[in-house]
Amino acid sequence: MHMKKRYPMLNIKSVTFVVVFIISVSFLFIFIDELQNINVGLNFNADNAHDHVVNQTSIGYRIPGTNESRDCTNYFVAEFQDIDVNFNYTLHNFTIHSTSCQNALFKLNMDEKNIIVLGAHYDSRARATKDPNPLNRNIPIQGANDGASGCAVLLELARVFNQIKDNLSCQIWFVFFDAEDQGSDSGGYGMDGWNWCEGSQKFVSEIDTFYNSSVEYFQCMLLLDMVGGVNLQFIAEQYSTSSLLDELFDVGRQLGYNAEFPAYRSSNSILDDHVAFINLGIPSADLIINFWNNPSWPYHHTVNDDITSISKHSLEVTGKTIEQFIYNYYLNVSLNYYKGNFPWVSDLNSLGTEINILIGILCGIIGVSVFISYLSHKEKIRTHFQKYKDKRKS
User: N or C: which end of the chain has fewer CB within 10 A?
Assistant: First the structure.
């Protein structure tokens, strides 16, 4: 018996399902949080962090080489000794353009071999080069957000982590960088002839003197810069190790900070203190805002970068996100099934908000076009198969 070869009809439901699936995946891949934070209480106190911002700005202008700069590092030492009188610290002295500068390094859990670096710069800019009032452009800024906010978060995190240090399986470095913010912007130099991030570059160039490279090793570096201003919204900083920065965004979003860690985020390459660590091969991420064109925070390098621009909520968002990140990996708790991006080897530049939107739209258009094309040819397809069937019968 001769068997007829069957040619199955295309099923409109099947095609619809495939098209809808393609469209859904195209739009949803940006929004899916794959990582799940471990369930643990967070103890970061935004009031304490805010007090640290107030205290730094009260010291005065922390311009490299000034008495106020030294008073600021002395303040850090006093605060760490208040946490623990035996807190290990090193004052790293160096010179830029004949100016004496000083980084400050504090170490927690020195018995652990794997090191997490948490960093921020403490110097404030010597000139308000972007102030809308030309009369202000040669006077210093307080640097409440640009400098003091990141340091304030580090100080509060040190208090929090010290309380549970015996349950943390990592060594944590708290590094306060000098001489970060004196380079040239659109209005000129903060200090004539200075470059950006002088302090972190000096620190990394001498980093072998701060640890035993035969037994200790770095796992990542997290930089906090301008993290306490009102209307906080972090960007996809492009020098950062993408898998590490993406994980910080996932951690923050799972804490409910969706506005501060937006799914669609601006992107830019910011020369900041993390770049020296990147160049050393250490996975690093910079939590930083859009400071160059941001109506929500227009105070960058102006005299208005003062305590009135600081938000306790922003400090809390930053502090609790870093606290949760550390706990996800290094808190000794039972039933910890956290799966992150460690060891953060993937480093792909973000496509940015506009391109992500464009990709989603294009995928949607392609999917819809396929669906419409199928509908428009449906009758032709059926007619073709019907003629084939009729011919076989005859």
Answer: N
